[in-house]
Structures are given as C-alpha cells and as structure tokens.
Amino acid sequence: MSETSVTAVVLAAGKGTRMHSAKPKVLQTILNEPMLYYVYAALEPLFSKNILTVIGHGADQVEAAFPEKAGSFVLQAEQLGTGHALQVAWDAVKKSGATHCTVINGDTPLVKTEAMERLTAVAGSNDLAFMTITPKDAGAFGRVVRDEDRRITAIVEAKDYDINKHGPVTGEVNAGIYLLKVETIEALLDELKNENASGEYYITDLVGLAVARGLKVEGVQCGDDLSLMGINSPRELVHAENALRSMIVEDLLDKGVLVHNPQTVIIGPRVTVEPGVEIFGHCEIYGKSVVKAGARMGSYNYITDSTFEAGCDIKQFCHIEGAEVGPNSWVGPYARLRPGAVLKDGARVGNFVEMKKAVLGEGSKASHLTYLGDTEVGKGANIGAGTITCNYDGKNKFKTTIGDGAFIGSNTALVAPVTVGREALVGAGSTITRDVPDEGAGIARGKQRNIERKLKK
Ligand code: UD1
Ligand code: CA
C-alpha cells in the first residue's frame, strides 16, 4: 500500500443564516468556547498543523479569535457554497503536498478524534469517502442515495430531493465530513455546477461525479452518532451544549469531584477540576480555570480563566475573571475579582469588594465595600469598609502600595500614586494624597465641630 498523508480543511466561511446573529456561526459558543475550538481540538491530534480553514463571513473576527492559527486561513470572499469553498482552498491543499485531504464542516463541534481517525483509515482504498449518519430526523441534511446493491450513487440535498427521481428516502444522511484523494478528485472540482435549489456549488455533488467516473466511493456509516450532527439553529446549538455539559459534569463525578445539584453546573472543556473539590450548583466555570483539590466553590458563581488553590472557599454570588485565588483564602459572598486579582495564602475578600490588578498579601483582609485597583497590599493588612483606591485620573492609571500590617480606616480614598507604609494607620474618612510613613498615622479629614442648636420648644 502506498503512503498516505492527509491535510484537513475546515469549512467556516458561511454566515449561519439560521442563527439570526451578526456573529459568524463558527464563533457561536458552546460552554463559552467558539464552535471552531472544538473542531480544532478534534483535528489537532491527527493533523497537528496541517489544518486549513476557509473563512469568509466575519473573516476578521474568526482570525482574531484564533491568533495561533495565523497563516492557515484561506479567504472565500463570496460564499458560493461548500463546493466553492473547497475550490478556493485547493491551491493550499496542493501546496501541502498531502495525498489526501479531509474536509469538515466547521459547524460540527462535537466530532471526536476517533471519528476522524475512522475516516482517514479508509484513505488507502478510496478516491472519496464520507461519514453518514442515520438520525431520528433527517431534517435538512443531504440525503445519501444508494443503488440496489447498497453502493453509493450520490448525495442529494434535502431541497433538491425528488422521490420520483431519487427513490424513497432511507434516512441515511451526509454528516459533512469527507476524505478526498487529491490526485483523482482534482479534475472533478471544475465540474461542479450551481444548478440546484440553492444556486450554490455543493461539495456533495463530488460524490455523484466520482461515481459517474467509476472512482471508488465509500459511505462510512456511523448510525445515530449525535456527535456528528451539524449545528444550524439556536435549538441545535443548545441541544449540543447540554449534551456536552452533562458529559463533562458526569465525568467529574466519576473522577471524584463532589458536584451538588449537577444539572445546574456548567464547566467548560478547558477547565481542570481536581478530585476532592466540592462544587455547589448553580455554578459556571469556564476558560482555562484550574480548581485544585480541597477547594470549595459555593453556588451562583461565574468564573473564567482563574485558579483556585487548596482550602480556598468561594462563597455564593461571585464574579471571578482572570484571578488567582490562593490557598485557604475566602472570597465573597458578592465579590468581583477582575483580571490580575491575586489573593495570597489566607487572604479574605468579602461582600461588594472589587479587585483589579491587585494583590492581597498573606492573611490580609478587605471584608466590605471596597475597590482595590492597581494595588499591592502586603501581609496581614486590614482594609476597612468603603476603602477606594483612586487609581485613575481620567487619562492614566497609578499604583497604590499598602505595607505589611497596615490598617486602613473605613471610608478612605487613597489617591494614587501613593504608599501607606508598613504597620501604618489611616484614620477613617481620610482622603490620602501623600505617602504615610512606616508605623506612622495619616489622617486627612475635616475636624469635627459641635455647635449649639436652637431648638424651638
Ligand atoms: C451541509 C451539506 C449536507 C450535510 C450537512 C451536514 C452541502 C451542500 N450540504 O449542509 O449534505 O448533510 O452539511 O451538516 O455541503 N460554508 C463555507 N462556504 C460556503 C458555504 C458554507 O465555508 O460558501 C461552510 C459553513 O460555514 C459551514 C459548512 O460550510 O460550516 C456547511 O455549510 P452549511 O450551510 O451549514 O451546510 P448545510 O446546509 O448544513
Ligand atoms: Ca450545517
């Protein structure tokens, strides 16, 4: 058998009219990751960098969403159909030098690497192979037509299907994943026509053309494999999303994560949750978050791209994004941690506290109603209720530094750039504009005056 090598082509130029959204369909998210993320995740183990993506509608947005894929995009300026998309990519396919090319619709996010493997396995013995499924409802899928001997004769799009011409439907449909032998399929590409109900060049017409030429064509049957269903509408999207959500949560339960009320817990595909974590629903954890063994995640939290160390306790109703939550620390209820928020060992952030690019040192506390932005707080400091770091002058951001063991009285405005020294104290209600020395005390507020009142009796 001769050596085969395969380049993958992802078709992602379509608008996704049925989503009724300005966003390109392949950027619609499932568990907070764009659909294309999943397609790449399934392809990369097999094709690593040999993956081309045809983009068109919202091309800039798609490129921007996957900067690591720069150089592998092919522009289909006008979306004239899936066959046209392949024609546009063909030069790049040829340049790759691969003997075969596998083509996959970018709206098939649940596809698994094993399915792609199954298809590439038949490369040696076919000119064209594609995956077929037999879903409960054949919907708008392209119909697979076979002759009396069960040999493939064509794929006919639902809109173009004519029972009199094509015979009764069998329920077997096209999943939109193909494997083509570059050498023999090339000549057929120019033969595609757009004389059909949609006025588009269909990749699926290659099947009929290949059969007519006596080339070897195979339909790899995958039964009612849900992971091969294309996503065209909001309903199909949430259906896929729910299926994947439940798979991820069930898997975590199996591995030893205690997930209470699991139907209400949503965890993204890039999140790591170690066995020994306790999570209460409702809860959403997305992005590249890591939750270490012994962390506790209360209910009603929204989390993305954050890490949680052992023994930390996230109370209810927090919004946490790009934060590092240290061991044995406390967050919430009702806290907001924005990118660059760091809690060291045993630090505490309480209700209505917001942190952005701010480090709260070991054992330090900001328990109530506070904003810490562009701030570094040392160890064992206490930030009183209603403390605001005034980090922005309308143009630039400035830093606030608070030393170990400092005590900031309630309702203090710290006008950055400013430093409050080690073991220093700031009187409640102060507006601090100058540094407070180590072990010193700063107080900056109007002096209280008690005046006599004349009460009418
Ligand atoms: C397609 C197949 C259908 C199959 C189904 C499986 C065709 C003609 N039909 O139908 O047989 O059952 O997928 O899910 O291929 N795209 C481009 N450029 C274009 C048009 C589309 O890149 O000019 C991309 C889209 O972004 C999408 C993919 O191709 O990711 C499929 O297009 P779509 O319009 O969703 O095709 P279906 O009607 O679902
Ligand atoms: Ca589709």
Describe what this molecule looks like in 3D:
The chain has about 450 residues and is an alpha/beta fold. It has two domains: about 220 residues, Spore Coat Polysaccharide Biosynthesis Protein SpsA, Chain A (Alpha-Beta Complex), CATH 3.90.550; about 210 residues, Hexapeptide repeat proteins (UDP N-Acetylglucosamine Acyltransferase, domain 1, 3 Solenoid), CATH 2.160.10.10. Helices cover about 20% and strands about 30% of the residues. The protein has eight helices and 37 strands. It has a 23-stranded parallel sheet that branches. A seven-stranded mixed sheet has the order 5-4-1-6-10-7-11, sandwiched between helices. Helix 1 packs across helix 4. The protein is elongated and about 105 Å long. Bound molecules: uridine-diphosphate-N-acetylglucosamine and calcium ion. The site of uridine-diphosphate-N-acetylglucosamine has 30 residues, from strand 1, helix 3 and strand 10. Calcium ion binds next to loops.
Key structural traits:
8 helices; 19% helix; 23-stranded parallel β-sheet; elongated; Spore Coat Polysaccharide Biosynthesis Protein SpsA, Chain A; 2 domains; 457 residues; alpha/beta; 7-stranded mixed β-sheet; single chain; UDP N-Acetylglucosamine Acyltransferase, domain 1; 31% strand; binds calcium ion; binds uridine-diphosphate-N-acetylglucosamine
